Amino acid sequence: MEKRLMKEFEAVFKEQGEAVFFSPGRVNLIGEHTDYNGGMVFPCAITLGTYAVVSRRADAHMLLYSNNFREKGIIDVDLNKLQYDKQDDWANYVKGVLYFTQQEGYKLPCGLNILIEGNIPNGAGLSSSASLEVLIGTILKELFQLPLSMLDIIKLSQKAENQFVGMNCGIMDQFIIGMGKKGHAIALDTATLKHTYVPVQLKQASIVIMNTRKQRGLTDSKYNERRAECEHALSQIQKIMKINSLCDLKEEEFEKIQHSITNPVERKRVRHAVLENIRVKKAITALENNDIIEFGALMNASHISLREDYEVTGVELDTLVESAWQQSGTIGARMTGAGFGGCAIAIVEDETIEDFKQAVYKEYTKRIGYEPEFYIASIGHGAGKLVGGCIQ
């Protein structure tokens, strides 16, 4: 991979690349739409991700080229004129990180040539945008020796997505992409950023990613609408009790005060956030106790809540998950990511995976009219420089 990308970089930019970097995608095992509600999440980094080859320039321009969007050619970004431009498409995520890095007072002494290639399916909900953002922050730190911690890069990346691109996401995606550890998921409290690494030991089972192949741009979806609903409900609750976020609520507290949420739809959104946060804590305990069956049951309950109370699944995700539930080797299945398309995940007994894929493929294609995709997820490291195929 590194040698091929170096050759392609030389073909595009007519000079040799200096270094290769990698930033993973992610799946969230459980804990959806809790991150911006101050709750717990349980994601892991995967070995699919985004690669970059870079070299320094003598001017203040970033020349960006993506093997995934060859038709767009080289996009020329002036470090002194960083503005959102819809025509620049994927490059806006790069520009956002550049902009906020400079806004925070870090000097970028020159521009860069950057060739990008990702093997995360575009629009699949495995967080290709956050992968790209953290990748760029890591490159800037390494090449320019900036005094940035990985947490600094994570926060800059989230700010780029929130304030430059206009996607009002929480911090989970950038956090796991920057802080991922091979063979482990992260139990992350998004309110405090306290986190612990939990070994993911699935015995004779694997994580199967199921891609609906229904692409969705989150900034154009109902994601921001859901967040606004939660914020409005929180403002009503705060009039009668002192909480900082919805996930501060215990289940019995929610039952007592739910009448204060005047909009019944918003009441459902809060119910999901509160109970999903509880499910995450139970799921982490189950995995620590090697109770995969309980973990799978909590995944199933999570999907039902996302379908009924948060209403972010849709026919494509529901078809994948409900078909997965019907297979004998399935331990648990749920949508992952923001929803509205994208991917679902299932924990499947290894000896049944091929039968599982065939059955779900057949049911999905019959009902939806086009084919899903399947990937076996390996849990990998967070973003960094690649040397000999390994993250430094």
Describe this structure in words.
- Helix content is 40%, strand content 22%.
- The protein has 392 residues and is α+β, with helices and mostly antiparallel strands.
- It folds into 2 domains: 1-26 and 44-183 and 380-391, Ribosomal Protein S5, domain 2; 205-377, Alpha-Beta Plaits (2-Layer Sandwich), CATH 3.30.70.
- The longest helix is centred in the C-terminal third of the chain and has 25 residues, at 264-288.
- It is globular and about 60 Å long.
- Catalyzes the transfer of the gamma-phosphate of ATP to D-galactose to form alpha-D-galactose-1-phosphate (Gal-1-P).
- Mg(2+) binds at residues 129, 161.
- GO terms for molecular function: ATP binding; galactokinase activity; magnesium ion binding.
The overall average pLDDT, rounded, is 95
Number of DSSP strand runs: 14
Distance between the termini: 16 Å
- What is the CATH top level name of the largest domain? Alpha Beta
Listing every helix as H and every strand as E from the N terminus to the C terminus, the arrangement reads HEEEEEHEHHHEEEHHHHHEEHEEE
Rounded to the nearest angstrom, the radius of gyration is 21 Å
Main sheet characteristics? 7 strands, mixed
**Count of folded domains:** 2
CATH hierarchy: architecture of the largest domain: 2-Layer Sandwich
Characterize the overall form. globular
Beta-strand content estimate:
15-25%
Active site: 173 (proton acceptor)
Binding site for ATP: 66, 123-129
Site (Transition state stabilizer): 26
Family: Belongs to the GHMP kinase family. GalK subfamily.
